[in-house]
Design brief:
alpha/beta, binds N-carbamoyl-L-aspartate, binds zinc ion
């Protein structure tokens, strides 16, 4: 049987939620990843160091005994964030960066930044203290077509931020367009992007295949095929600016199958296998290790993991659902067959 042995991977963009949902989803991530960057968009956002440390504690308490997993915490930028907080965060080891959500861009983003051009004093502090800035790069202007919002964010805001703060380390989170790929490629190495499995595997047709498909709806929304191809090219190019960030974003069945369903795909159940599928389809499985296990820690200046995991070429069918507190969740690819099976850590 064909198998792949690779350095243990990390997830550089993850939503873990809290309470019973956290308990239900965390084991999936801990099973495959050694570290994860935990997004701060809880219903009450993680805006202070104390919030982040308490949230980190709640995560750590739920790690199964005998498992090693490091949550890397982020703080949620608001109009009220101060340069002093940036300074304090820069001295706190377990806080890895600040997340910029334009207000209203996505789930639990209403307390986000109302105008990304008016917080230059924060970019200045982040740059000076060398704290990474993680960006949900979409404009919220309702005049802009939803499929163009990432491109518009880059031209309206990001290009100027990058120009003005030449040392600021930036991650364009969950890049979804060829414009984002091109932009990141053209920047210096201190600008990177995470890529999700769904944006590498699907284009927007899946959203309407035979009916409306809420479990494939996430933000930024899936784009045209040419964008998917550009993302997959970037992911499999060996360019260290592009690395793994699942954006696994759990919402219960009832939150998804609704007249106004939430944005987010749950991918933690089969994260590595989904990426392996996408890479293998373009004959580039040998590029998976760099993307999943090297370029993320290199960008964040953390050590690469030293242990290893194995994937085996063995078909399995993704379950229709997993338990989620009192409810259940439909994972990405529910009922579909995958060619690769994660067979755990090598001892
Ligand atoms: C995320 C969520 O549900 O928290 N949803 C999503 O569609 N990706 C938020 C986000 O990362 O935009
Ligand atoms: Zn996200």
């Amino acid at each position: 049987m064909q198998s792949i042995s690779m350095t243990s991977p990390d997830d550089w963009h993850l939503h873990l939620r809290d309470g019973a949902i956290l308990s239900a989803v965390l084991p999936h991530t801990v099973n495959q990843f050694r570290r994860a960057v935990v997004m701060p968009n809880l219903p009450r956002p993680v805006t202070s160091i104390a919030d982040a440390l308490c949230y980190r504690e709640r995560i750590i308490q739920r790690i199964q005994p005998g498992r090693e997993f490091q949550p890397l915490m982020t703080l949620y930028l608001t109009d009220a964030t101060t340069p002093e907080l940036v300074k304090e965060a820069s001295k706190t080891d377990c806080i890895i960066g600040f997340k910029l959500y334009p207000a209203g861009a996505t789930t639990n983003s209403s307390s986000g930044v109302s105008d990304p051009d008016r917080i230059y004093y924060l970019y200045e502090a982040l740059e000076k203290l060398d704290v990474p800035l993680l960006i949900h790069a979409e404009v919220t202007d309702p005049q802009i077509d939803i499929f163009d919002r990432e491109k518009a964010f880059i031209s309206r805001h990001l290009a100027e931020i990058v120009r003005n703060f030449p040392k600021l380390r930036i991650v364009l989170e969950h890049a979804t367009t060829e414009d984002a790929v091109q932009f990141v490629e053209d920047c210096s190495p201190r600008v990177a992007a995470t890529l999700t499995p769904q944006h590498l595997l699907y284009n927007r047709n899946i959203l309407f295949s035979g009916g409306i498909r809420p479990h494939h709806y996430c933000l930024p929304v899936l784009k045209r095929e040419r964008h998917r191809k550009a993302l997959l090219r970037a992911a499999t190019s060996g360019n260290p600016k592009f690395f793994l960030g699942t954006d696994s974003a759990p919402h219960s069945i009832s939150q998804k199958e609704s007249a106004c369903g939430c944005a987010g795909c749950f991918t933690a159940h089969a994260a590595l296998e989904l990426y392996a599928e996408a890479f293998e389809r373009v004959g580039a499985i040998e590029y998976l290790e760099g993307f999943a296990s090297f370029y993320g820690p290199d960008f964040y200046r953390l050590p690469r993991n030293t242990d290893r995991v194995t994937l085996q070429q063995k078909n399995w069918t993704i379950p229709e659902s997993y338990p989620l507190g009192n409810e259940s969740i439909v994972p990405l690819g529910a009922g579909q067959q995958l060619r690769w099976t994660f067979s755990g850590r090598e001892s």
